[in-house]
Amino acid sequence: MNAAGPLPSLWADRPYHRHWLLAQAEGLMDFFQYRAINPKGGFYDLDRTGVALDKNNPARGIHASARMVHCFAIADLLGRPGAADVVDHGMRYLWEKHRDQTHGGYFWQANDDGAADASKQGYGHAFVLLAASSAKVIGHPLADKMLADITEVIETKFWEERHGAIAEEFSADWQPVPGYRGQNSNMHLTESLMAAFEATGERHYLEKAESIADLLINRRAREEGFRVAEHFSEEWVVDRSYYHPNEMFRPAGTTPGHWLEWARLLLQLYALGGKTHAWMPEAAEALFERSMTLGWDKEKGGFFYTLDWQDVPEKKSKLWWPMCEAAGAAHFLNAHVPSAFHEESYRTIWSTIAAHFLDRQNGGWFEETTEDLVPANTLFPGKGDIYHAFQACLIPLFPAHGSLTKVIQEHGAAL
User: Fold this and answer.
1) Quick check: helix, strand or coil at residue 238?
2) Which residues of 73-99 are buried (b: 16+ CB within 10 A; e: fewer)?
3) DSSP letters along 176-202, please?
C-alpha cells in the first residue's frame, strides 16, 4: 500500500461495491436469523454449517444475546421481514433470564435453569445498554424500562467518577472482584453510550463516552505511542505482565483489532460531540496507522491477534473481527481524514475478507483462521456472532457520523 499520489475515488461510492456489501449483509442475516433462535429463549451458538453447537440447555452469553438484539434492530430499520421478532425474542430473554431479579444487574451467562454464571461483568452490561438503545429506536415495548434499569446499574455499580471509567467485575451480590480494570469493557461501553445518547438525546451518556476515550486513548494510548493497552490495575496503571487463561476476552499483550475499533469510535464520538475535540481525529489516524504498520501481516495478509510489548506478533491467528473493525475504521477515516492510504487500506482489507473469510459453501464468515489464513477453530468453536461482520458490511453504506441505528433512521434505508 502506497500513501502517495492523488486521492482515489472511493469504493464506498461505487454502486457495484455497495450492492456487494449489501449482499454480504443479507447473507449474514440469512445465516443467523432463524437458525440461531433457541425456542426455549435466547440464541444458539452455531457451528460452521449453521447447526447449533449445543441444543441441550446451552449457556447463553449476555453479549451474544444483546448483540443479536442490536443487529436485528438494525435489520428492522432496513425493512428486513421477521427482524422485529428476533429483537423481541432477545429482549425478553435479556429481561426475564439475564436480569437478576434479586440483586439487580445482569448475569454473564444464563440457561434454562437460571444463572449459569452469575457474575456481573462490565463487558456484558455494556452490551445490554447497546441492546436497549437499539430496541428503543425501533419502539420495542421493553426498551425504555431496560434502558432505565441498565443506566442505573452502570451509574451506581460500575461507574468510577474519579477515573472516568467503569470497574470490571462484581459477584452476583455486588461484591467487587478486585485487582483489575479492563480496556475492552470500557471500549464497548463507549460504543453503547453513544448509541444511548443518540436514542435519547441525554447528554450524560455522551459525556461518559468522552471521559472513557480521554482516559484510554488521549492519555494511556498516547503514552504508549498509540498502542492500546488492554489490562490495568485498579488505579489504571498499565499491567504489562497480565495473564488470563481466557484468550477470547482477555489476551495478554496488545490487540491491534482494538486499535482499529477505537479509531472508528473516536471519529464517531468526534462527530457526535460537535467536532470540538481536535485530538480525536489525530488519535484515530495514529491508531489506524499503528495497526496497519505493526499488526498487519505484510506477507500473508490479515491482522495478527496479539502482539507482545516489543511489537512482535505473539498470537498469530487471524480473526474475522479485526478485519471487520478495520473496514469500518477505514470508512470513517475516508470521511474525516481522507488520504490515499486509508482508501488503499480499505480495498486491501475487503479483498482479504473476500478471499479468506467468507464461507461460500455454508454461508456466514469464518471467525478464525491460522497465520496462513486457513479456517480454524481454536479460540472460536464455530459461528457464534453476527455483530462484527454485519456492522462492517453496513457502515460503509451510510454517512460516517453516528451509530448505524442513527444514520439509518436519519437517512432511511436507501442505499
Assistant:
1) strand
2) bbbbbbebeebbebbbbbbebbbebbb
3) B--S-EEHHHHHHHHHHHHHHHHHH--
Reported as a single tens digit per residue, the pLDDT across 286-335 is 999 999 999 999 999 999 999 999 999 999 999 999 999 999 999 999 99
- Residue 307 sits at φ, ψ, to 5 deg, of -120, 155
Cell numbers standing for residue 151: 443506566
> In the numeric block, which cell numbers belong to residue 72?
436485528
DSSP per residue, 60-86: EEHHHHHHHHHHHHHHHHHT-TTHHHH
Residue with cell 455486588: 174
Cα-Cα-Cα-Cα dihedral sign, residues 12, 14, 18, 21: negative
User: 395: which residues sit within 8 A by CB, 6+ positions away?
Assistant: 264, 327, 328, 331, 332, 404
Residue 257 C-alpha cell reads as 483489532
Q: Which residue numbers are catalytic?
A: 258, 388
For residue 313, what is its C-alpha cell?
Answer: 506478533
Q: Cell triple for residue 404?
A: 448505524
CA atoms of 103 and 172, how far apart (whole Å)? 7
- Does the pTM surpass 0.85? The reply is yes
Contacts of 197 (CB under 8 A, 6+ apart): 203, 205, 206, 209, 272
Measured distance CA(320)–CA(305) in Å, rounded:
10
Which of 321, 326, 335, 325 has its CA nearest to residue 270?
335
> Of 311, 321, 306, whose CA–CA distance to 371 is shortest?
306
Quote the cell numbers at residue 77: 430499520
